[in-house]
Amino acid sequence: MIKKIVVIGPESTGKSTLCEQLAAHYKTVWVREYAREYLLANGTNYTFENLLDIAKGQVAGEESAMSNEQEAMGNGQWTMNHQLLFIDTDMYVMKVWCEFVFGKCHNWILDQITERKYDLYLLCNVDLPWVKDELREYPDLESREKLYHFYKDLMVNQETPWVDISGNYEERLQKAINAVDTIL
């Protein structure tokens, strides 16, 4: 059975870097954040409806990765660790994004939150320095901390185990490895 670990948190908190590092450490694959691909292709002037398209693209990427992993397991292809799948962003991120920007959330996203099951959440804290890129919107510490607390409230009020990930990049990786090792 594949263990699914989701890395969430505000933008510029090292989510993608951590997913890539964990996938390399455990010799497995990771699901990239679909929003980056979508916004790079379609521009950053997005609407509420665009967020639903992004959410569906994120779920499709996860489903594709799960399908490929299960197929590889069934074919006896054990060149990689097919027991773990790291996921950069899930529907909690989409919920926070919808509500923070538009004050409401798509029912489809809320339904996915209740339907999709994960084994561990890694919540990235805002203690890393902000790194500007063409897609990021909230460089101010006040917004970043507010968003982090939205995520933390979600984690506290759901049943899946979660770990707060803070510190420099190496400390974050070690905390994440320790957390993943506890569910293996």
Description:
The protein has 184 residues and is α/β, with parallel strands linked by helices. The chain has one domain: P-loop containing nucleotide triphosphate hydrolases (Rossmann fold, 3-Layer(aba) Sandwich). The protein is 54% helix and 12% strand. The chain has helices spanning 15-26, 34-42, 48-74, 91-102, 107-115, 141-156, 169-183, and strands spanning 3-8, 29-31, 84-88, 120-124, 162-165. Mean pLDDT is 91; it is low at 73-79.
Search tags:
184 residues, Rossmann fold, 5-stranded parallel β-sheet, 54% helix, 12% strand
Mean pLDDT: 91
Give the helix/strand class.
Answer: alpha/beta
Number of domains: 1
Span between N and C termini?
11 Å
CATH superfamily: P-loop containing nucleotide triphosphate hydrolases
Largest sheet: 5 strands, parallel
Shape: globular
Number of helices: 7
| Percentage of residues in DSSP E strands | 5-15%
CATH topology description: Rossmann fold
